[in-house]
Design brief:
There is one protein chain. This protein is of the alpha/beta class and 419 residues long. The chain has helices spanning 2-19, 35-50, 66-77, 90-97, 107-112, 115-118, 121-126, 152-157, 166-178, 190-205, 207-214, 219-222, 225-239, 250-258, 270-277, 312-325, 328-338, 354-369, 384-398, 404-418, and strands spanning 25-30, 54-59, 84-86, 128-129, 134-135, 137-139, 141-144, 147-151, 182-184, 262-266, 286-290, 297-300, 303-306, 341-342, 372-374. Helix 2 (35-50) packs across helix 15 (270-277) and helix 2 (35-50) runs antiparallel to helix 17 (328-338). Bound molecules: beta-D-galactopyranose (GAL).
């Protein structure tokens, strides 16, 4: 009897490697390589490893993710999809249309964990495939785009208060320029031009205008006099940049504000991740304040999409990753580093800083006022080709002497051609 038991035990040991799997595994494609971004992502990597997961890192550097999205496209076309990739907005559903996500491996996790109750309807919709019925992506956060970041010492020593209108901003920038300070730290890359442009458009055009222009692609909004005023302000902003601006990375521009070389930057709140990573504090070292608008809020939800993959280890890896991403504590810790706020609605904001608290309360106010709007510049509002058509014109205008009138006409034509 004893002998028989020993034999069975021995057999189990011998057979185990062939019938079990090596543990959850996931190749993760992302573009979070700046100081703050990497620090935030490490929380997920560590959580995954702590649960026995093997993380294969596939970073593709480049703010805004343009380079990462190119690499991803190539991988998908060659039939070599990673288990998970940082993808957001309508691009998620575009990939579903290509048939590379189905059968929605993480939907069972989402159902078991009741994600529909954990995030807002608006966020949930972005995460769903199969005609918005099944989860195929998991949200990590909500970033706000329409922010000014300013060096407090520079403003104080020049007697400047945080502007609440574009007119005040221009007056402050003129004063700083005269004092020999770079008013506006800007990274001249198309996605950064677009980031600034949509914040300006929200302020000058208003919430309803933003929706008409960048969600409905209404030619009268794209081609009207309001759009010309928006391009006028873009031209002003250009005059406040320094000659080193073209091609500069966003985090280098944030560094200029940190060091007091420049006064302001317009950037999503991942910029706060950079300030935090350097130990700088809002209200003490820097100021965060929304760019002018009437209860507007441009949001950007970072998420990971899960492609169709084969192999028990990869399938389990996807499930584990999805579950960890939606973990309550993960959403808190990750977002404190990242500069964003949790996508989960039940995470207390008590331990977050003043900028995050403001983001959260402004989001709720904007939601009630019809001002909670998806960022076009960060791939939340439009399909890739349409967003790209707008950004091309914005960048061309910003980097030339094109008149606002010509830019507006070009915008209408470019959007039409992209549809
Ligand atoms: C955004 C992304 C952020 C941040 C930023 C700069 O599109 O949503 O998480 O990484 O790009 O890289």
């Amino acid at each position: 009897m004893k002998m028989k038991k020993m034999l069975i035990a021995l057999l189990a040991i011998i057979l185990t490697p062939s019938i079990s799997f090596a543990g959850p595994k996931a190749e993760v494609l992302h573009w979070w390589t700046s100081g703050g971004e990497a620090k935030a992502l490490k929380v997920l990597k560590d959580d995954f490893a702590a649960q026995g997961g093997t993380w294969l890192d596939m970073p593709v550097a480049g703010g805004g993710g343009d380079a990462a999205m190119q690499t991803l496209k190539t991988r998908i076309v060659s039939g070599d999809a990673p288990a998970a990739a940082q993808v957001k907005g309508p691009t998620i559903q575009e990939y579903d249309d290509q048939g590379v996500i189905k059968p929605y491996n993480i939907d069972a996790v989402a159902k078991a964990e009741n994600w529909d109750k954990l995030v807002s309807k608006q966020v949930a919709r972005h995460m769903k495939c199969n005609n918005f019925t099944q989860y195929c992506a998991a949200p990590v956060n909500i970033h706000r785009i329409d922010w000014f970041w300013a060096n407090k010492k520079v403003l104080d020593s020049n007697g400047i208060k945080m502007p609440t209108t574009w007119k005040q901003f221009n007056a402050a920038a003129d004063k700083l320029k005269a004092a020999g300070i770079i008013p506006f730290a800007h990274g001249g890359q198309p996605w950064q031009d677009a980031t600034v442009f949509e914040a300006v458009a929200l302020g000058i055009g208003g919430n309803a205008f933003y929706k008409r222009a960048f969600m409905d692609l209404d030619p009268t909004a794209l081609g009207g006099s309001t759009m010309q005023k928006i391009f006028d302000q873009m031209r002003k902003l250009k005059s406040y940049t320094d000659p080193g601006s073209p091609g500069r990375d966003w985090n280098v521009a944030t560094g200029m504000v940190m060091d007091g070389k420049a006064a302001f930057q317009i950037m999503g709140d991942w910029a706060k991740g950079e300030f935090s990573a350097k130990g700088l504090k809002p209200g003490v070292d820097y100021i965060c304040s929304p760019t002018p608008s009437k209860k507007g809020y441009l949001y950007n939800v970072d998420s990971f999409i899960f492609y169709r993959v084969k192999g028990a280890d990869k399938l389990e890896g996807q499930k584990l990753l999805a579950s960890l991403i939606m973990g309550k504590n993960f959403q808190k810790v990750f977002n404190m580093y990242k500069g964003s706020i949790p996508a989960r609605l039940d995470v207390s904001m008590a331990d977050f800083d003043a900028c995050a608290k403001k983001s959260n309360s402004d989001l709720n106010a904007a939601s009630k006022a019809g001002g909670l709007l998806p960022s076009y510049a960060h791939g939340m509002a439009l399909k890739g080709a349409q967003a790209g058509a707008i950004t091309d014109v914005v960048t061309e205008h910003f980097n030339s002497n094109m008149s606002s009138k010509d830019a507006t006409a070009k915008l209408v034509a470019a959007v039409k051609a992209s549809q």
